[in-house]
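Issue 218. Parser rejects a valid record. Input:
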Amino acid sequence: MLRFDYGMAAAGVPVSAIEALGRRAGECNRMLEEGTGAGADFLGWVSLPSSVTETELRRVKDAAEKLRAVADVVVVVGIGGSYLGARAVLEALGNPFACLRRERSGPDVVFAGQNISEDYLYDLLEALQGRSVGVIVISKSGTTTEPAIAFRILRGELERRYGKAGARERIVAVTDRSRGALKGLADREGYATFVIPDDVGGRYSVLTPVGLLPLAAAGIDIGALVAGAREMEAATAAGVPFGRNPAEQYAAARNVLYGAGYRVEILGSYEPSLHYVGEWWKQLFGESEGKEGKGIFPASVTLTADLHSMGQYIQDGERMLFETVVSVASPLHELRIGTGGDEDGLGFLAGRRLSEVNRMAEAGVALAHCDGGVPNLRVDIDRVDAYGVGGLLYFFERACGISGYLLGVNPFDQPGVEAYKRNMYALLDKPGYEKEGRRLRERLKER
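Output the parser choked on:
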C-alpha cells in the first residue's frame, strides 16, 4: 500500500550513507515499541491502530450519527493536533466542489478555534444563521486560549438558540478522562464525551476520537482509515528489515541529508487533495524535532501549481533543501483530454488521460531538480482513499518518532510552544501575570 524510494537522494548524499544508518534506525524503532527512549509516556499511538476495537469504532459512529441527525453543520473546535489531523483527512477524501451540489449526503464540517481572528469567527457565526448546528469541542485541558474562546462563543450561540437542554444534545466534548476545565464543564452540563488518551500527544492523535469523531460526522469511512493504519503499523514494526521498512528508510534518509547540510525539507504532492496532509505533516515534524537548536525546517508545496511560484527557487536557489514527494499511483476517476484542433499546441495529448500527463510532470520535475542538486525522496501510495490515507498518516508518525530519536531529541514534547502563551497571558493581564505584563509592555514601547 506504500513504498518508499530514496534512490534520487544521491543528488545530495551517497545512497550507501543512508543504508549505513539502517541499523541505528532499527534500534530507534525498537525504542518506540519498547518505550525505552525519551518521551516514553507518550507512545500510546504506536500500537493504536491494532488496538482500536469495533466496539470503540461503533461508539464513535453512533455519536456521529446523532450529530448528523440534528445538525446540517458540525463545527469542530480545536487547534494543532486537535484540528489538523481531521482536516487533513477530510480535505483528502472530500469533494472540493461539494458546495456546488444541491443535494448533500450529510452535514458540512467546518473548523473553529485554530486562530483568534475576530473576522473569521464573525463570518462563521454569520454563515451559521439559518443552519442547524452541532459542535465537537476538542481540548485536553479546556483552557487553551484559541479553542476555549471559540467554544465559549459557540456554546453561547447554541444555548441562545436551543436552550441549555437543546444545546446539550448538540455538543460533544473530546477531552481528558478525569480532569480539566472542559471535562468539568461536560460533566456538569451532561455533554456526551470521548477521551483523549493520556499517552497520545495531540499531533499523534488523529486515530483517536480527536480525529475519528469529526471524520465520522462528515461521513468518512473511519473503519477503512484505521485498517490502513493497522497495515502500516505492521509494515513499519521493529524487526521488519530496513530494506523493507519504509519508516526506517525515510527517517534515515532525512537524517543523513540533514547531516550533509540540507536544513529544509519540502513535502509536495501532485494531488491537491493532499494539501492539508502537508499542513498536518508540518506540525508533526516541526513540533517533534524543532528543539535544542536542531531540526529540519518542514515546508510544503502543492504541485504543479507551486512550480509556477516556488519552482524557480527549488530549481536554482540555495542548495539547502531536499524534497519528499507523495506520489499517487491511481486516480479515483478517469478523464481524458479532448480531441480537436492544435491551436493550443496540445494536439499531441489528445485522448490521453490527465493522470498520465500529471505523472510525466512529476517525473520530469524530479529529474530536473535532481540535476539541479536537489535530493528527492518519494513516497508512493496506491490511491487517495480512506485506507491509503490511514496508512500514509501512520507512516509519517512512525517515521517521525524514529527520526527524532536519530536526531537525539525527545519527539514527544513541545517546550517552545509555551513561550508565546506566557507572553500573551501577561499582555492580557491574566491573574498572576500582571507584573510580567507591565514589563513586556515597556519592552514593546522601546521597539
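Fixed in the parser; the record now loads. Residues 145-168 form the longest helix (24 residues).
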